[in-house]
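Subject: Sanity check before I submit

Could someone independently write out the structure tokens for this chain? I want to compare against mine line by line before I put it in a report. The sequence has 374 residues.
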Amino acid sequence: MHPTPAQPSRAAHDHEIESLAEFDEVVAEHGTLARFRVQAVDLTGRTAVLLRLDTTGAVFLGCPMDTEAAAHVRSAGALVFPPVPGLPFDPYRGFVYTPDELFASLAEGYEATPDALSYDWFQRTKADGDVFASMLRAIHDDAVSDALDELLVGARVVGVMGGHAMARGTDAYAGAARLGRELTRAGFTVATGGGPGAMEAANLGAYAAPFSDGMLDDALRLLAKAPSFRPSVTDWARAAFEVRERWPGGGTSVGIPTWFYGHEPPNAFAAHLAKYFANATREDGLLARSTAGVVFLPGAAGTVQEIFDNATPNYYESRGEPTPMVLVDGEHWTRELPAWPLLRSLAQGRAMESRIALVDRIEQAPEAIKRLGG
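---
Independent answer below. Compare away.
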């Protein structure tokens, strides 16, 4: 598998330390760890530093360290939350996931990957009433939210909403991929639900953005040999990694999937995957972070819900100025599932009225986003 782009570097001025390089930078610059938060950093090779520096008020979240160092920093006034053994995920992680991380061990079959193992753990623990498991899920999801917020600082994010059932090899899938490509080329960061179908297509398009137009056509043909994640997630995922290996260094985008829908695997084209246990946190977070607007492709109940989940803060302006909403396919949204007439009536006379649009073709969506102020 070709490695995904590295996580963005950040200065250590925010008192959060999330990598060994950042730890060393803070030590060199400040000469103290007092009141810093160190998150999921392996400190077993930094015992001498930990014994020497002031750690008053510091918090160490899931940081492996030598016994002597752990005892010393505790006695000096630090809080130490040790790593939790036996988990297929790190609840204290400092970064969002990458496809390579979630699909590690794919050569042995999808069932052996951290993604599948984390879903299995979730299935075993979500209904047993164990407060410890509930706490671990909550800590994990909060850590992912923190990492996602840091990742998206300054980005113009456009969400692309659509269903998981859209198959590779179809015109609809190709259209969603071209949408993702054009949005990325226009300077937007594409964000999706991070799963298969329309979500994967938009992330694929973002990945294809730096290449010539012909690359996407070739990639679509390669992917069509495994049109769906059913019956084999393994074959479906391997086809995606084959595309990435043939065209390394693609464009970046974001996927925000969930283990709540464990039957929907994440896709390998989103460079950054913020995967959650709690679907409600994931759904609201995806829409809230789509600060430059949202494109709604034809969908069913889930997409209808997302339209009005997004319309509510736009209606009340609870997140500030309304953000653009573009619905694609007039026939679908006015006759089959008439969400557009209701949305238009809801927006009438309010600030959001000038921020909604209905377009007939997916090719019109990027221009509509820009016209509405994305």
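---
OP: Matches mine. For the report I'm noting this point. Residues 54 and 103 are 39 Å apart (CA to CA).
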